[in-house]
Task: inverse folding
């Protein structure tokens, strides 16, 4: 297994969480591992719920106690979840994805208004929202600004016939004037790259975190723990990376000239851990090839038909993977393929992609290769979600413990 339960988790106060658009469960697992163990997961897609239910039935760690609800989040009465500790989720990212049509707020899949309604009705102590980096591009960043203002002042609803830019201007006046009433939130956002936190994949995503203003909660986004420079050092200064994998010297890649120049002028930092690579991630998994299926690890089977061509070359073994995408076989840059030592390419197995997204090895995905890859590609890497959620859980556990002590 890649993950072990946090120490003495059972002795900590139980925190309640509600996850919307839960998908394959990456962010939900992360929240549960961080300490939000009393979790309700809602998703409209039967395939995603089938995956959650299958793992619950198998008694997989954390999910065995979840409440799984297959429903449209537009039909949920969030007042039922009033004052929960955490509201989390990733609204469908296709409306803002750089790889999609980018219809943004005009896309029927745009679910940010439902998340804002959930904040308004449930009044959670905190929330975490994850989405694609495309939200920050020039055409959509004004709308992201609007989303954040609504999350800060969720009770100031858009009035009938009020255009969204007019509503944003009104929210700006209330916010800067400090005249807001009702439930309010302190909201911050940041782009995080999964590779900087031990995810074996270059995956940049926007995280939006809010804490209720009436609570004495402080939060900051986690500082990077892993770096490309440390990986370069392990490869081309100490050689530790190659030795760990048993790669003989004549088969080791040489450092590109640009990297050599950077290594010579590199200033030491506090980040001592290396970016994790594809080779690191899939280490220990049995080889699968044509006609071979592994029964030791779930979802580890060969899928034929991969081919490389210009711009569609797959992920290299000795770097973090390209961003895993929720596409079928033909994703634009070959992100769902691996290039092996002999130069050949094949599709990642579902289990390999799950490792690239840092799902635990006992987490089973329900469906075909394409269906499973879609679930995994849409997921938040478990490790990245956990480092975002953990500081919130720690602060809230202290708050809950203090409230319990006052009652006693």
Result:
């Amino acid at each position: 297994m890649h993950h072990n339960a946090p120490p003495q988790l059972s002795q900590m106060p139980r925190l309640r969480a509600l996850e919307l658009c839960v998908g394959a469960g990456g962010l939900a697992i992360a929240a549960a591992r961080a300490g939000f163990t009393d979790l309700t997961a809602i998703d409209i897609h039967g395939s995603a719920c089938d995956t959650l239910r299958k793992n619950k039935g198998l008694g997989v760690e954390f999910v065995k106690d979840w409440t799984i609800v297959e429903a449209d989040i537009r039909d949920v009465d969030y007042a039922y979840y009033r004052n929960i500790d955490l509201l989390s989720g990733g609204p469908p990212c296709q409306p803002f994805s750089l790889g999609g049509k980018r219809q943004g707020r005009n896309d029927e899949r745009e679910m940010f208004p439902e998340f804002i309604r959930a904040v308004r009705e449930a009044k959670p102590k905190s929330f975490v929202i994850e989405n694609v980096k495309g939200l920050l591009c020039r055409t959509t960043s004004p709308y992201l600004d609007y989303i954040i203002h609504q999350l800060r002042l969720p009770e100031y609803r858009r009035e009938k016939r009020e255009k969204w830019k007019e509503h944003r201007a009104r929210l700006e006046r209330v916010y800067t004037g400090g005249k807001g009433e009702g439930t309010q939130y302190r909201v911050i956002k940041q782009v995080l790259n999964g590779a900087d936190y031990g995810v074996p994949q270059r995956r940049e995503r926007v995280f939006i975190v809010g804490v209720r203003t009436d609570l004495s909660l402080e939060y900051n986004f986690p500082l990077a723990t892993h770096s490309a420079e440390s990986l370069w050092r392990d490869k081309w200064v100490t050689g530790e990376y190659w030795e760990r994998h048993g790669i003989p010297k004549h088969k080791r890649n040489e450092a590109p000239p640009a990297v050599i120049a950077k290594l010579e002028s590199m200033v030491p930092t506090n980040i001592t851990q290396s970016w994790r690579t594809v080779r690191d991630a899939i280490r220990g998994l049995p080889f699968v090839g044509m006609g071979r299926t592994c029964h030791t690890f779930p979802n580890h089977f060969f899928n034929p038909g991969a081919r490389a061509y210009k711009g569609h070359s797959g992920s290299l073994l000795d770097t973090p993977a390209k961003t895993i995408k929720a596409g079928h076989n033909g994703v634009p840059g070959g992100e769902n393929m691996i290039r092996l030592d002999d130069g050949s390419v094949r599709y990642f197995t579902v289990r390999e992609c799950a490792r690239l997204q840092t799902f635990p090895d006992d987490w089973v995905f329900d469906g075909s290769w394409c269906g499973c890859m879609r679930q995994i590609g849409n997921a938040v890497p478990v490790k990245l979600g956990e480092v975002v959620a953990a500081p919130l859980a720690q602060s809230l556990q202290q708050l809950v413990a203090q409230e319990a002590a006052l009652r006693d």
